[in-house]
């Protein structure tokens, strides 16, 4: 019945087989990537797998490893997910702490509950009547009626043991087989089992406060509770399995001989206790009662929290940005599928090959992906990136930050991915890279404000630009290569003579005294002049900077405004005051024709989607607005002909936009 319901979803709501077009925001033509994975859950019949991501909740058919549905997209940012045992409902919770219950058959939300912003763990009771979520802060749990959302019970957690102590991201909850009681993490290293209707304490199980509980599982008879945990105070991996006899409140078994860093228990329907022992690159499956190894399989990529046993303990799944692997106890094998998911935000975007290929660099160590724009699929992945990267004008070389902390620069061949050279100079993360327009030089900046110039073939350090004292957040060459503009966390924007490394000018980023320079809502302009004195500095987390294609204007993003400077006099030409919904422009770029400017903002509280805005440079007018990603815009890129715009988000996806209706190229 339940699998038929999922097939109905696929037939009625996702009739388009092109997954890149599912649930797009208005104006977007494709989505590249399927979001950052946070959690997963098996359907009760074990034939489907739901994956919680920053885009929404994807449902995959395990037989084909293909997505058949996508829900919870109106906000996205789904952090946890669970199927009801009867297969009728799917529960999700998101970053805002909103819990929703969806009808499996209709994909309709029937219940909306304000939960906790601590990424609630979710669990249905065996009869699917109740839905439980972990509490906020330091443990506890809440229980609601599944179909009405009516509150049933609340169990408080412990208070922090010391002032300023940060709560863990997620605690666990687990119903007993008869559905009468609930086991939950009640504090650091502490477990409680409470009767749901009477609120009576059945037992309190004391773990060490140094142990992080990673998995809970009731035995089918309800007498035993298996607990997997990790010692968080030790540098070495130290996991432990304990089985508690709830009737006698004693530890039936303790096993600390597992070698991974996560330990997930589950009982099969016949009472066999299975354990998934997760290592950095493999999963070992055990019959814990007999201490017998059942199977081992390797996986690629970062698993984070995306792993789970099926309801009957017969299957185990793990999802990463590279693949999804599913283990079946009966067949003693794993099934793998490549997934277009990531584990981190998009950091860098640029088009190449005349707009046929889009290159995206991801933060952390998620790599660089080459996307076929026509086919809308990943064509090649380089796994050595640390986020910052730059393409040479000839499109043959790619410079990227690598190393344990992103402090080393590696230059690669674009086609083959083979290394050309390694540049070692920076001691901290390289935050910005740029090739000169001729391709003869490479400039690199880091989080300490250091700027180095390198010659290309032969590769050597040429000079250093001295002046910045904070992180280089962005830098760009003048189209003729004679100058380079930089902006930093030190609240300065500078223009340098590229040939000798001397500073041409420091661009004014303080509030201007001449009100005629400002464009936008007059009420907002008055508010700025009432609250900020002329000459006071702006701040921004990652201020951007860019030259116009003709080189006559420099544009930068400041708090509350987009500033345009004259690239000859270095004085302010115009300041575009931003609407309240986009006051932190994280990225600013010119269209190839130079007549338009596009800005992407940070998320603000209360927003479901973040805005991308198209501005007319000559007037400062906002001529189009696109409500795009569910959270921060990290980078933007125009295709060479200006007809398409790519936006990369903190959600790990890229949206493609058709700009033809808005831009006169």
Number of helices: 2
- Neighbour order of strands in the largest sheet: 46-50-49-48-47
Shape, per Cα inertia axes = elongated
Cα gyration radius (Å): 27 Å
Query: Unreliable runs, pLDDT <50, ≥5 residues?
Result: 1-13
Strand content: over 45%
CATH topology of the domain at 508-665: Methylamine Dehydrogenase, Chain H
Verbal overview:
The protein has 665 residues and is mostly beta strands. Among the domains are: 123 residues, YVTN repeat-like/Quinoprotein amine dehydrogenase (Methylamine Dehydrogenase, Chain H, 7 Propeller), CATH 2.130.10.10; 126 residues, Methylamine Dehydrogenase, Chain H (7 Propeller), CATH 2.130.10; 158 residues, YVTN repeat-like/Quinoprotein amine dehydrogenase (Methylamine Dehydrogenase, Chain H, 7 Propeller). The protein is 3% helix and 49% strand. It is built from 2 helices and 57 strands. The strands form 14 sheets. A 5-stranded mixed β-sheet has the order 46-50-49-48-47. A hairpin with a 5-residue loop joins strand 47 and strand 48. The radius of gyration is 27 Å and the shape is elongated. The two termini are 54 Å apart.
Set out the fold topology.
Layout (H helix, E strand, L loop, with lengths): L1 H12 L14 E5 L4 E6 L5 E6 L3 E5 L4 E6 L6 E6 L5 E6 L3 E6 L5 E6 L7 E3 L5 E5 L3 E8 L5 E8 L14 E3 L5 E7 L2 E6 L5 E6 L4 E8 L5 E8 L7 E7 L4 E6 L6 E6 L5 E6 L3 E6 L4 E7 L8 E3 L5 E5 L3 E6 L4 E6 L7 E7 L4 E6 L5 E5 L4 E6 L6 E3 L5 E6 L5 E6 L5 E5 L6 E6 L5 E6 L4 E5 L4 E6 L6 E6 L5 E6 L4 E5 L5 E5 L10 E2 L2 H10 L13 E3 L5 E6 L2 E6 L5 E6 L7 E6 L5 E6 L9 E6 L5 E6 L5 E6 L5 E6 L4 E5 L7
Parallel strand pairs: 46-50
Antiparallel strand pairs: 1-57, 2-3, 3-4, 4-5, 6-7, 7-8, 8-9, 10-11, 11-12, 12-13, 14-15, 15-16, 16-17, 18-19, 19-20, 20-21, 22-23, 23-24, 24-25, 26-27, 27-28, 28-29, 30-31, 31-32, 32-33, 34-35, 35-36, 36-37, 38-39, 39-40, 40-41, 42-43, 43-44, 44-45, 47-48, 48-49, 49-50, 51-52, 52-53, 53-54, ...
């Amino acid at each position: 019945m339940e699998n038929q319901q999922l097939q109905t979803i696929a037939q009625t709501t996702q009739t388009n087989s092109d997954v890149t077009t599912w649930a797009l925001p208005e104006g977007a033509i494709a989505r590249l990537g399927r979001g950052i994975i946070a959690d997963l859950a098996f359907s009760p019949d074990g034939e489907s797998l739901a994956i919680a991501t920053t885009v929404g909740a994807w449902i995959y058919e395990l037989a084909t490893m293909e997505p058949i549905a996508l829900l919870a997209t109106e906000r996205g940012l789904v952090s946890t997910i669970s199927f009801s045992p009867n297969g009728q409902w799917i529960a999700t919770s998101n970053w805002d702490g909103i819990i929703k219950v969806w009808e499996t058959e209709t994909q309709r939300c029937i219940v909306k509950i304000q939960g906790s912003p601590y990424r609630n763990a979710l669990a249905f009771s065996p009869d699917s009547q109740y839905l439980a979520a972990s509490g906020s802060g330091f443990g506890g749990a809440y229980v609601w009626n599944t179909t009405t959302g009516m509150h049933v019970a609340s169990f408080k957690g412990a208070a922090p043991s010391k002032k300023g102590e940060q709560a863990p991201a997620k605690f666990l909850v687990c119903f007993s087989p008869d559905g009468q009681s609930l086991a939950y993490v009640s504090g650091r290293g502490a477990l409680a089992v409470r009767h749901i209707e009477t609120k009576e304490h059945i037992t309190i199980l004391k773990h060490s406060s140094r142990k992080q509980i990673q998995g809970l599982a009731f035995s089918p008879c309800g007498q035993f509770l298996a607990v997997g945990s990790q010692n968080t105070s030790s540098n070495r991996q130290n996991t432990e399995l304990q089985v508690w006899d709830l009737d006698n409140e004693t530890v039936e078994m303790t096993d600390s001989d597992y070698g991974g860093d996560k330990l997930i228990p589950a009982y099969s329907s016949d009472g066999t206790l299975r354990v998934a022992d997760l290592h950095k690159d493999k999963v070992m499956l055990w019959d814990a009662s007999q201490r017998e190894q059942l199977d081992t399989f390797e996986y690629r990529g970062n698993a984070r929290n995306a792993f789970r046993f099926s309801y009957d303990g017969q299957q185990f799944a793990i999802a990463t940005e590279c693949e999804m692997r599913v283990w079946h106890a009966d067949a003693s094998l794993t099934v793998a599928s490549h997934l277009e998911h990531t584990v981190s935000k998009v950091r860098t975007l640029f088009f190449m090959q005349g707009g046929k290929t889009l290159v995206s660099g991801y933060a952390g160590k998620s790599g660089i992906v080459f996307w076929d724009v026509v086919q809308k699929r990943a064509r090649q992945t380089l796994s050595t990136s640390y986020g910052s990267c730059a393409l040479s004008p000839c499109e043959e070389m790619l410079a990227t930050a690598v190393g344990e902390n992103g402090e080393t620069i590696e230059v690669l061949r674009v086609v083959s991915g083979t290394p050309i050279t390694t540049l070692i100079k920076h001691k901290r993360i390289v935050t910005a890279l740029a090739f000169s327009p001729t391709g003869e030089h490479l400039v690199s900046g880091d989080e300490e404000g250091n700027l180095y110039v390198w010659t290309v073939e032969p590769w050597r350090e040429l000079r250093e630009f001295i002046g910045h004292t904070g992180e280089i957040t962005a830098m760009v060459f003048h189209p003729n290569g004679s100058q380079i503009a930089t902006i930093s966390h030190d609240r300065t924007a500078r223009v340098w003579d590229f040939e000798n490394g001397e500073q041409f000018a420091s661009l004014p980023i303080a509030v201007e005294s001449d009100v005629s320079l400002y464009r936008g809502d007059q009420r907002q302009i008055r508010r700025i002049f009432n609250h900020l004195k002329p000459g006071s500095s702006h701040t921004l987390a990652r201020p951007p900077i860019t030259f116009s294609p003709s080189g006559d204007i420099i544009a930068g993003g400041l708090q509350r405004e987009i500033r345009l400077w004259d690239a000859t006099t270095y004085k302010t030409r115009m300041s575009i005051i931003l609407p309240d919904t986009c006051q932190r422009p994280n990225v600013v770029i010119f269209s190839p024709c130079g007549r338009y400017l596009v800005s992407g903002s940070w998320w603000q509280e209360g927003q479901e989607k973040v805005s991308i805005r198209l501005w007319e440079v000559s007037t400062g007018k906002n001529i189009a607005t696109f409500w795009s990603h569910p959270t921060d815009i990290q980078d933007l890129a125009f295709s060479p002909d200006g007809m398409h715009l790519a936006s990369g988000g903190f959600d790990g996806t890229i949206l493609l936009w058709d700009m033809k209706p808005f831009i006169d190229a």
